[in-house]
Predict the structure.
Amino acid sequence: MEINRGLIEGQRSTDFVAGALPYEIRNPLGDWMPYLPPGEFQRNHVFDSLACVTFSALNSIETQHKFLTGQDRNFSDRFTAKMSGTTNQGNYLFKVADSIRKDGLVDEVVWPTADNFNWDSYYIFPPIEVLNKGREFLNDWEVSYEFIDFSRDSLIYHLKHAPLQTTIPGHAVLTFWSTQQVTRFFDSYEPWIKERTESFGSALKIVLTSKTKVMTEQEVKGLYALAFYRLPNAGELSYWVGKDLATFLKTAIDDRANFLQNS
């Protein structure tokens, strides 16, 4: 018997599909495991939030945030589950993605989840100061999404751009790595990391983009090779990942000028 963990399948005729968003190879290996957040339960000992769509979507955002900035971030699943209209039947992928894009996100500490919450207390509407805090996220970040084909070749291709929200019967998860033989996904039930050889029911790519150009790990390595003819050490890499490109270029030019002046 199929158990519904909170997924309502379906999409609108107006939703973007693969090719609508500019494709970018951010992670050439398509392996996002080093950037995954800690696992979080969508269910406690009292109730199940039926918010697997929210949990998998925020796992994608948190993974991308770590990749882009080098910083861990834990966003409130409770906030997005409510703002996206999650019901006792669950939610659609597009509704959660739309909420993130329009309502923004807040950190877990701003709108936390207690162990003793029940359905009514978990899904209470956030106060105005929390709503305003959510919109502040959109000052720095842009969120876009598109449905993609869920074939294995498509997953491998799009995973080089972002981790993917995928669906299995009654449940939404985060696919973070795939080959022709097996796909690994990140779940909101233990064990957090699972493997699947069967196909998925649908797939959505949510893309997080900084409104200020910040450098990824791969970009920092490439710039060091161009500017200094070497790779950065661990301290340099940690410092520059997530910093803006303009600051790096100014520093590199100043360092080069000082080197020439003192040589």
The CA atoms of residues 64 and 208 lie 7 Å apart. The mean pLDDT is 93.
